Amino acid sequence: MNISNLPPLLQPEVSQLWQDFQAKASPEELPQDPPIVESLAKVWACSPFVAKHCVQSPALIHQADLLNVPSHYLQSLTPELQAIKEEADLMRALRLFRRREMIRIAWRDLAGWANLEESLKSLSDLADAMIEAPLTWLYQRLITQFGTPVDVNGIAQQLIVLGLGKLGGQELNFSSDIDLIFAYPESGETKGARRSRSNQEFFTRLGQQLIQVLNNLTADGFVFRVDMRLRPFGDSGALVLNFSAMEEYYEAHARDWERYALVKARVVAGDKAAGESLLKSLRPFVYRRYLDFNAFEALRKMKNMIDQETSRKGLNNNIKLGPGGIREVEFTCQVFQLIRGGQQPALQQRRLLTTLLELEKNQILPTKVIIRLQKAYHFLRLSENHLQAIDDRQTQTLPDDEINQARLAYSMGFDDWNRFVAQLIHHQQKVHREFERVIAPKAAPKPLESLQSIDSNSWQTLWMGGLDDQEKADLLLNGAGFQKASDVLAHLRQLLDSYTIKKLSRRGREKLDILIPLLIVTAIEQQDQDAAIHRSLKFIESVARRDVYLALLIERPHVLKQLVRLCADSAWIAEQISRYPLLLDELLDPRSLYDPLKPEALDNALQAQLTQIDDLEIEMDKLRQFKRANVLHVAAAEISGNFTVELVSDYLTAIADTLVRRALTIASDYLMQKHGQPFCVDDGKNRQAALCVVAYGKAGGVELSYSSDLDIVFLHDSRGAQQMTNGYKQLDNNVFFMRFAQRIIHLITTNTPAGILYEVDSRLRPGGNSGMLVSSFEAFENYQWKNAWTWEHQALVRARAVAGNPESMAKFESIRRDILSQQREPVQLKGDVCEMRAKMRDNLDKSTQVLFDLKQGRGGIADIEFIIQYGVLRWAVDYPRLLETTGMLPLLGRLAEYGLIDELACQQLSDAFRAYRGETHRLALQNKSALVEHEKFAQQRDEVKRWWAEIMG
Questions:
Q1: Which domains are assigned to the chain?
Q2: pTM score over 0.85
Q3: Residue 732 predicted with pLDDT over 80
Q4: In 156-190, which positions are buried (b, 16+ CB within 10 angstroms) versus exposed (e)?
Q5: What percentage of the chain reaches a pLDDT higher than 70?
C-alpha cells in the first residue's frame, strides 16, 4: 500500500491502521486484487468508519465483494434470516449485513468506481431490502400469535410501508434516517387465533416491532434511524391508518408541507400493488388539476422556518439547509412540480435529476439553469455522502477540525480545504440565485413618476371604501388620468358588491385586497388606461374564486404587468385569458411570451406535454391548452410589433397543422386498437391503406387568423380487392375511414372544459354536404375531372395536404397538379370566376354606405384572391411552378415574375392584400368585425377595382 500520495495530515493515521490490520489479518485476508490495493489508502484516509471496521474484521474486505456493483439485496438478505428464531438474532443479522454492504458502497464511492447515481440508488435499494426482509419475518411471527389480518371478504392483508424524502426518491444519503408512513387497506379483524384482534391493533404492533428492529441501538449499532413524524397528525397521530382514514386526512386536514412530502412518496415494502393504489388515490392532493401558484407561498414559508432553525442552531455551514444548499435545489425544482404536476404528468417524478430533465424538456427552466443546478446538486450530494462516510454519522455540517477538512477535500479531488470551499461557494451562489429568482417574493410594481405625489396607500384606501365618491373620482381622474373616472368607479363598486366577491374565503379576500390596488397602479401605466382597468377587472372577477390566480399575480408582479398590458392592447386576448385563466402560466417568462415556438419545434413540444397521458379527455384538453398557449404567444408577438402579418399566419397555420396531425394520430391509435389496420389488395399486392387530411381555404393557403375555422377534406388510398381491417372486429375500409374522419372531427370540435380546438367545415368535399365525408383518391380525382365546378378548382388552388403518411400526401399533390394543369378556355374561365364572385358578393358582402367589408366588399380581399386563382387556373398548364405554393402573396410574385399579370398590378394588389389582412388581424384582436370606414382604404380599394376591371373585365 502506498500512502505517499495522501495529504501529509492523513498519512500517519492510515499508516497506523495498516499496521494494525496486518497484525490482525491472516495471509488469506490480505487484499490481493490490484484495484483494491491501489484504492485502500485513499478510502481509509477518507473514511475512518470503513478503515476501523476492516481492522476489526479483516475478512470484510473479501466478504464485501468490493469490485462488483451492489444489487439484489433482498435475495442476499432473505436466506440469512430464514433460520433465525429470535428477534435479538434478527437485529444482529441485519446490522452485520448493513455494515458489510455499507462498506462496499462507501468503498466504491470513495475509490471513484461508482458515480453518484449508483451510490444513491444502492443505498436506497439496501434500505428497501432491510425494511422488507424484517417486515416479512415479523409479520409471519405475529400472525402465529394474533392470527392473520383480513378484509371483509376474508382476504389476508399486509402492512404497506411508504418511504418519503430521499428514500422515496431513491436518493438516500450514506448515513440518512428514513422517513416512513405505515398504512393498511381495510378495517377488520384477524382470524386463525383463539382471540381475534382488530387489524388496527395488529398492524400497530407490527409497525412498532419493525421500528424497534431497525432503530434500536445495540452493540452492533443500528440499521436505520426511523422517523415517523411525517405520518398523518404527526407524533400525536396513530402509528398506522387504513386507506379510508388516510384519504380522509389528506382531503380534510393535511397542510401544504405534507403535499411537498408526498411528492417523493414510494411503496418501499409490504403489499406493493395495494400501496400503489393508495398513492394513486392521494395523487389529486399532491398534484392539483389546476396550476397551483399558492405553492410559492407554501414553500417559502417552509424555507423561512428552515432558515430560522438553521440560524438558531448555528447551521449556516450546513450544505443541506444553508443558503444555496441541497434543500434550495429541491425547492427550486419541486415548486414547479406542485404548481404544474396536475397539468403535466411528466413532472410527477420522485428523483430530482429526472425532474430537472423534465423541466428542461417542457421549457419551464432554461437549459443553462438546468445545467447549473445539475452540477451544483451533484457536487453537494457527493460532498454530503463523503462527509457522512467519514464516521457513518448523519451530518451535513462542514467539519471545523483540520483533519476532517483534509479528508473531505481530498475525497472530493481537491489539494486543500480552501480550494474545496471556493468550489462549494461557487455552486451555492448559483443555487441560491436561482432559488431566489423562483421562490423568493418579488417587489411590487412601482407607480409612475407622476404618481409619486399620491399617498402610496391611496389606492388601498379607495378600494377599501375609505374615501367618499367625489374624492374617489378626483383621484381616478386628476390623480391617475382615467378618461371616464365615473365608469371606473362604477366598475370597482360593481366588483366589490358582486356575489363572487362576497362569497370569497377570508384568505381569498385578503389576497384580493392586496391585488386590486396593484392592478390599478399597473393599469395607469398603460396607454389606454380605461381599457386596461375594465378588461383587467373583468378577468379578476372571472377568477376571484380561485385564489391561486390571485396568488400568482401578487407573487409575480411581472405577470400582473404583462396581463394588464395585454388586456389594454387586445380585447380578444383579455377575453381568452378570462375564459381560460390557465393562460396566465404563459406570462411567467416575458422572454418567451413574445417569442413563440418556431413551427419546426411544435411537434416535439406537443409530444412532451402529452407524455404519460392515457386519458382521452385529458389529452383533448391538452390539445386545446397547447393551441391557446401558442396562439397567445403569436398574438403577443404581433401586438408588440415583432411579427408581420405573414409571419403571424405562418405560425398560426403551423399550430393548426400540428394539432390536426396529432388528432389523426390519436384517432388512428383508437380505431386500430379496436379494428386493426386497414389493408387492401392493389395490383395483386397486399398493402396498408391510409387516410390523408387536406386543408383548404385559409388553412390551405397558410393564411390563418385568430378565429379562423378549418376547411378540411378527407381522402383515403384504399382500392382493389379485400378492403378490410385486420383486427378482431373487422370493418370494411370505407366504414373504417368514415369513422376515422368522424373521430378526427370529434377530437377537434368537441366542447370540453378547455373549449373547442377549431370549428371544422368539410363542405368543400366532393358533392358538398350531400357527398361522402371521406372519398377515395379515385373518386376524388374522377369528381374533379368530370363533375367539379370552376369554383371548386379555384378552391383547389389553396388546397394542401397537412396530415397522413408521405405517400398519401404525395398522391393528393399529384392529383391537384393534374387537375390545375389542364388547358382551359380563357373566356369561359373568366366568365365562371366573375359569376362566382358576383354571387359571393351578393350573399356575403356586409358593406354599408358608411362601412367597407374588408373581405367581401368590392375592391377587397376576395377580389384579389379571385384574380390570383383565375391566373393560376389559366396559366398553370404552361407555368407549373405556379402550383408549388398555395399562398396568395407568393402566387402574385410568380405571376409578376412570368409577366402574366402587370408587375405594377401585382405590387399594388400585394400591398392592398397585406394592408387588408393586417387590419383584419388588428380588428380580430379587438373582437371586432372586419368592417372599416370607407375612407380608410380608399386608395387600395380603387387600385384593386381598377385591376379587377382590367384583368377580369
A1: 64-286 (3.30.460.10), 294-438 (1.20.120.330), 449-589 (1.20.120.1510), 618-820 (3.30.460.10), 826-952 (1.20.120.330)
A2: no
A3: yes
A4: ebbbbbbbbbbbbbbbbbbbbbbbbbbbbbbbbbb
A5: 97
